[in-house]
Amino acid sequence: MSSFDRRASDIRAFDETKSGVKGLVDAGVATVPLFFHHHVEEAEEAANTSAFSIPVVDLCGARDRAVRDVGRASETYGFFQAVNHGIPVGVLEEMREGARRFYEQEDAEAKKGYYTRDWSRKVQYNSNFDLYSAPAANWRDTLFVVMAPEPPRPEDLPIACRDITIEYSRQVQRLGRVLLGLLSEALGLEANRLEEMGCAEGVAHLLHYYPPCPQPHLTLGVSKHSDSSFLTVLLQDHIGGLQVLHQNKWVDVSPLPGALVINIGDLLQLISNDKLKSVEHRVLANKADEARISVASFFTTHFSPCSRLYGPLEELVSEENPPVYRHTTVKDYVQHYHTKGLDGRSALDHFKL
To answer: Where does the signal sequence lie (predicted)?
Structure first.
């Protein structure tokens, strides 16, 4: 058997267990399988970190200051940590615990019932959405739940995190509308401009589980990538590992109690004509003795049929600042993003004029 055939066979066998990376750890694996190995230079980059830190923005103050701070952070870093965002700490803690309950439930068969690679399903559990196409797999599992514009029936959500996912989604959608209003004003637009364009209509939550890794220098939790969304709201725990690429240096996004990490997605960079920055980021493989939990909430509309075209806003282009991108539907953009996989290249390049 050739090395290519053996790799394909190993990936298929791993996928067919429906147990994800957690299943490998539970089985006592001491070495990371070859299809999880990343290039040596990617592992070496872990030491190439910067002393910078991403901005912290207080959302509960004067609106003009919040607009200024959100705009400045989004244009420079593409990331910021939001404090005083209005979501109770108890809701954040319960959301993390709900994710943990799903992955660590004793009834493994109940969890396997959600394992699928059928993108038409609103509730999907699997390991690595691009498992069969990525250059290397990542050391994490994911529960993917579409909650807007049409949420699943409550009974279709895993009971381990059902109630809190519904409540957390309600709270995050409210916060998303607030953030889009601030970003609209930061771009010099009316406060409701981005929301009226449908940027807040669709929301999906990715409940990530990063088990401890026996050889963290060989793999990553998430490969370098930017997000395909308009906007992403991230809830992370105390363990850390998220890094943002800034001025060709990796910046650690250190956990801040009670804060949410906000980042610009590719689609907002596209419609802002590169004014707002969708920045590459990654997650290191988990070196801790316990699993890392995070919940990423993507604002995007590719979950429902929509023929609306998105391109650089006419208010933001001129002879001196011509459009950088062609128009596209969200569905076409995300389809290209998923087909490409997390290969280290920006999906935006495909849509440049």
So the answer is: none
Structure tokens at 315: 């208010």
- Using CA atoms, how far residue 137 sits from 172, 193, 230, 243, in Å, is 29, 39, 25, 18
- DSSP-derived letter for residue 242 is E
Q: What is the pLDDT of residues 4-50, one digit of tens each?
A: 789 999 999 999 999 999 999 999 999 999 999 997 555 445 545 66
Give every CB contact of residue 180 below 8 A, 6+ residues apart in sequence: 194, 195, 199, 200, 230, 231, 299
Q: Which residue has the tokens 């067919």?
A: 16
Question: Is the peptide bond between 214 and the residue preceding it cis, with omega within 30 degrees of 0?
Answer: no
Residue 306: pLDDT over 90: no
Rounded distance between C-alpha atoms, residue 166 and residue 267, angstroms: 25
**341: which 2 tokens?**
């996989």
d(CA 19, CA 221): 17
The burial class, CB within 10 Å (0-12 / 13-18 / 19+), for 106 is exposed
Structural contact between residues 303 and 201, judged by C-beta atoms closer than 8 angstroms: no
**Average pLDDT of the chain, as a whole number:** 93
Q: Which residue has the tokens 């066979």?
A: 9
Pairing of strands 79-83, 56-58: parallel
Report the domain count for the chain.
Answer: 1
CATH number at 63 reads 2.60.120.330
> What pLDDT sits at residue 340?
78
340-344: long-range pairs with CB below 8 Å, 24+: 341/130, 341/133, 341/134, 342/130, 342/134, 342/138, 342/222, 342/223, 342/224, 342/225, 343/134, 343/135, 343/223, 344/135, 344/223, 344/224, 344/225
Torsion of CA 252, 284, 290, 80, to 10 degrees: 30
Q: What are the tokens at 281?
A: 């980021």
Is the CB of residue 74 less than 8 Å from the CB of residue 277? yes
Task: Please count the CA atoms within 13 angstroms of the CA of 324 that sit on its side-chain side.
Answer: 16
Taking residues 219-237, report their average pLDDT: 96
